[in-house]
Amino acid sequence: MEPIQLTERLGRWSSGRGPLYLLLADRLRRLIDEGELPLGTLLPPDRALAAALAVGRGTVVAAYDLLRLEGRIVRRQGSGTRVAGPVPDAGPETTDAPAFLHLLEPRDGVILLACAAPDAPPPELVEAYQRAVVDLAARRGDIGYHPSGDTVLRQALAEHYTGRGVPTAPEQIVVTNGGQQALSLLARALTRPGEQVLVEAPTYPGALEAFREVLAVPRALPVGLAGFEAAVRDHRPAFAYVIATCQNPTGGMLSGLAGSRLASAAASAGVPLVEDEVLAHLAFPGEDVPPPLAAHAPGVISVGSLSKLVWGGLRVGWVRAPEPLAARLSRLRAVHDIGGNIPAQLAAAHLLPALAALRQRRAAQLKANHDHLRAELAAQLPDWQAPPARGGQVLWVRLPHGDGVSFVQTALRHGVAVLPGSGLDAGGGSREHVRVHFVPSPEELTEAVRRLALAWRAYDQAARSLTAPPQLAV
Fold it and tell me: Which residues does the UniProt record annotate as the domain HTH gntR-type (predicted)?
């Protein structure tokens, strides 16, 4: 393709915010993903495209390198730069994380161990909606648009945090359509294109997607954000994101002392610290749950949701933040959807006082499932390493060899879907891991492990055949 042809297709690619190389890569990415640059298209050389766009050669090189790392282009000495095609993110035969939204919908005959949430609404939710209907019947003079969230729920959430040792005013609460929207709003509010965000490796893949969507660059640190202070000095991040309790996917917990040090270090450095508490209420019975990080520093931003504790279909999440940031998040929220579902928010307000009993019942069930899954893995796949979790819904499993990306394809063909570890690691590691959740019944987990064992035997046999020395002819 001639540089002038590509320039015409790029259009006003540089009109956004952020470094030019990111804007150029974003526009090329769209052209590739939408099919305007078909598979095999020969792209212009660095210097030629840079001259046509009136930018430095380094801008084009950096954009090309980013797309190469994503797998969208291939660069070979002597063969030029060619389009490799869009990164598969919705095909039926992939389970690569974080692009796993297609796995949310059930598929015939496939046991889904990729996306974890309760598989049925509990009786408490039905009762809460019945009470919410009564509340709605009594409402007058309310058009129902509340970008910050319904005042009843905001007040209930403020009391919920205050009861956990974090004094909170309703003005500090912004209600969202689930925890994922909360992360998306925070990413838009706190970052500009090209800025870095400190994250754990591994971490929740949906967070990585939210940050990358606004062209932020996740910078990986060990779980618990070990090395935080040095990373702040070296990279000057826009903010840091941590799952301190029931970490996803390792199931670990940051001790109270470690959490206090992290919160204090973030406050001293002036770096906003976002704590994802979506799984914080799923600690196993008997575990010593540390206080929220916001209890150590008032500027910590907390993200919560009822989707993992109550039901995924209850799209109610929230952000607890300093008032100026909360007001900004409300303005951003209004641009997208004006407000959330008021009946759902009223039901959530009725649920909050009943969370203790629901949490106790669900945590006990998850602990039993966790033990059952680990026992089945030990019996049928003894070479796999599945360390125990202290809470949450998933196991972080290390394979004896190979990589998760290729194994999950084999597993899917055997009727079970799990997530490869590389999609949860912003640093490009964890390729030897897979994430497996233990929400289903013990019977379904037993069948899932049976299928995983069959898949592993097929995968292992194929790997050995590829590495076996050739037979000598006699």
Answer: 18-86
